[in-house]
Structure formats: C-alpha cells, structure tokens
Amino acid sequence: MIPILVTVDLEIAQDYNVNEQKLILHKIFGDLHSMEIPLTVFTTSEVVDIFPEQIKMIYTLKNEIGCHGLFHDKEENYKTASEKKIIKNITTTSKNIEDKIQEKPICFRGPFMSTSSITQSVLIKNGYLADFSVCSQRFDIFNSKGGDIGWLFAPRFPYRSSEKSPYKKGNLPIWNIPLSCIGLPFISGLLYLLGIKFMKNFFLLLLKESLKTQKPIVYLFHSYEFTNYIGFKKDCNKKTGIKRNKQSFIHKFYTSDPVKRYNMNIDLLRFMLSFNSVNPITGKTYIKMLNGEIN
C-alpha cells in the first residue's frame, strides 16, 4: 500500500477574511473526517492562540498537529534565521501546541518550505522526528522564499539528514519527508493554476513511481484558500511588528472562487482514494513505519 500524506498548512492569512478562516475549519475537517482521510496539520502558534477550540477539534478528529512556526510572517524564514530566533520560535510554538492538545508535536514544516541544518538541530533537541520542508526536484525555487538549490539534488525518498545539509543523506535522528514533486510541486496552488484534469494526471505519474519505489505521496493545501480574498492596506502591523506576506504575481492566474477551490480539492482527494493501492495516514503513523515500529 502506498502511503498518502495529505498535509494542511494552517496559518492566519490577513489578506483573507479571518472570521471565514475560523469557520471553514469545521467544514474542512468534518468533510475529510467523513472521507476517512487523516490529516497532518502544520499550524502556527498564532493560529493556536486565535483558534484554540478549533485546534482541539482538529486533534479530536484523529488528525496530527505539527509545527509551522510562530506567525508565518515575511521574516520567519528558517533557511536564514539565526539560531537564537529559531530556538525561540520552535520552543514557543511547541509548548503552545502541547498546552492545547496535551501532546508534543513531532513533525515540522517551515514557513515557505524553509529549513536548515541549524533548524534541524533545534528540532532534534526539542523532540521532533520529521521535517516536511524539503521539496525534492522542485524547479520553481525562486517562487518560494524557502527555496534552495539543494531541492534539485535532494533524495526523492524519505531520508535522514546529514549534519552539513538538510538536503543530503546522513545519520541524524530526524527524517525528511519531501513534498511530492516532478519539477512542479504537488500542491493546491498548481490545482488552481492548471486545473483538475492536470492534477489527476500528475497524481497518476506520482502513483506509478510510488508503486515501483514505495515512496509516499505528499500533498499540500492551505485552509485559508477556501475563504474570500479581501487584500490589506498595510503589510506590517505597527503593534506587533509582524510583516505580512503579499501574494506573488502568479496568484493572479489562479482560480479565485473559494467554493470552486474547495470542490476541486475534494474532487482530487476522492480521485486519489479511488485506488485500492493507497493508504491515507498521518505523518506520525508514517514515521512509525519508517522506524519499523509498525508494518
């Protein structure tokens, strides 16, 4: 059986309706729970503070809660951040998550898919077992602030990191679980850009590869994508100093209707589950498989 890891990046997007971002969580996780798809959810500490009851609800529905940093602001880049800042961000978010769900997070994904050797060293010290930030053979390096030339040469299969680089194999006690890519990343943004037919064919290519290699298929979407875009006048909150992210130019070509976006994702996920050879699981379960704890 091929592991399917459906991952959700959960952050507050100030240029989308924040109240809608709260309400949509009940629909997303209710619907996918009914479809028997366990999700690996990477949340920021900000979301845990603003939507605490929703975080508890998500966890109660047998989903996994992982770390996605503090705010996912412009400057929160784990590829370039100092060790001091990384330690502060990861320890603060980890404690916040644990306080809400009474379980320590063990999976991490950096904002903008960013990571580094320093970041992984801090993760290991804080009990993390996996980093989901690497995008092996993703060509659009410059379309993500965390993009790195190392993506092009990183192993396509889950691997333990080298002390020198998160993009090379080594013996560190942390797994890299790469996002599925074949030049382009297997993410919802591509779905909104190229359509459902393209993404179903993309999945078939990934499945063909995985049936030969047994590597997992990792998909990513954001919860705010299913709410209305409102824009924002300022990209920095004077009270908090948080510098917010502006949409990249390519977003102008995306399908913009939030309901249509949601239905496209449901359509794609149902297509993925229509194959008897796949098994949707969480990151935590997959790590147990990698460590030989379960079959």
Any idea what the CATH architecture is? Alpha-Beta Barrel
Instruction: State the order of secondary-structure elements, H for helix, E for strand.
Output: EHEHHEHEHEEEEEHHEHEH
> How helix-rich are the residues, as a percent range?
25-40%
Please report the total strand number as a whole number. 11
Give the overall pLDDT as a whole number: 94
The CATH topology comes to TIM Barrel
Number of helices: 9
How would you name the oligomeric state of the polypeptide chains in this document? single chain
How many domains? The number is 1
User: What amount of the residues lies in strands?
Assistant: 5-15%
Question: How can the largest sheet be summarized?
Answer: 5 strands, parallel
Reading off the top of the CATH hierarchy, the class is best stated as: Alpha Beta
Low-pLDDT segments, ≥5 res: 236-240
Radius of gyration: 18 Å
CATH superfamily: Glycoside hydrolase/deacetylase
